[in-house]
């Protein structure tokens, strides 16, 4: 089985368009998380709060973010997508947050093969209520676990593309050399 973090390419048009791997379908209350060693999905927990993921949630392959994980994405689409599905996404913005005292950027993107969302280019194009839902979810989803999450601000697609490029660079510097060493053994 291919490892979704290391063997799925980010795509030749990154950061404008990239591949995203979905871990959690929108509307789900189960917190699935990529097991970095095996590449399989692990059930991390059931969300303690009475909330569900407001978008398909996953990561950009071959990226390495400030929280020592692949870069997180929220993919807006009209339907829930099965875990470990790969889809094409375009960033329209980013939500900056601090989770357990670590920077934790969330790239907000659209599924470009979904006709209900493929005409959105900037988070300002979204209804204000949709942004409020995204923010509120992350403010609330760990509240009953007594963990602190601070949603800081929303940024446009330019900042999102910069963060994606930096995360691809960090992967190439920090992770890829360790994979190459494993192949030589």
UniProtKB/TrEMBL annotation:
GO function term, MF aspect, one: magnesium ion binding
EC number(s) from the headed UniProt entry: 3.6.1.1
Keyword Transcription: no
Reaction it catalyzes: diphosphate + H2O = 2 phosphate + H(+)
SUPFAM superfamilies: Inorganic pyrophosphatase
GO cellular component: cytoplasm
Tagged with keyword Metal-binding: yes
Binding site for substrate: 31, 45, 57, 141
Residues annotated to bind Mg(2+) 2: 72
Predominant location: cytoplasm
Protein name: Inorganic pyrophosphatase
Source organism of the structure: Longibacter salinarum
Chain's gene name: ppa
């Amino acid at each position: 089985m291919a490892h979704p973090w290391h063997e799925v390419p980010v795509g030749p048009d990154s950061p404008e368009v990239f591949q995203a791997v979905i871990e959690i379908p929108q509307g789900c209350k189960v917190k699935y998380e990529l097991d970095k060693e095996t590449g399989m999905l692990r059930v991390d927990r059931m969300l303690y709060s009475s909330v569900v993921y407001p978008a398909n949630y996953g990561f950009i392959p071959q990226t390495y973010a400030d929280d020592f994980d692949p870069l997180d994405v929220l993919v807006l689409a009209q339907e829930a997508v099965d875990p470990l599905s790969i889809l094409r996404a375009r960033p329209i913005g980013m939500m900056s947050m601090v989770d357990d005292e670590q920077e934790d950027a969330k790239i907000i993107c659209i599924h470009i093969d979904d006709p209900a969302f493929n005409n959105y280019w900037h988070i300002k194009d979204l209804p204000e209520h949709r942004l409020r839902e995204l923010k509120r979810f992350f403010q609330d989803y760990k509240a009953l676990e007594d963990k602190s999450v601070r949603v800081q601000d929303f940024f446009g697609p330019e900042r999102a593309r910069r963060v994606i490029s930096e995360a691809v660079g960090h992967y190439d510097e920090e992770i890829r050399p360790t994979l190459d060493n494993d192949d030589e053994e």
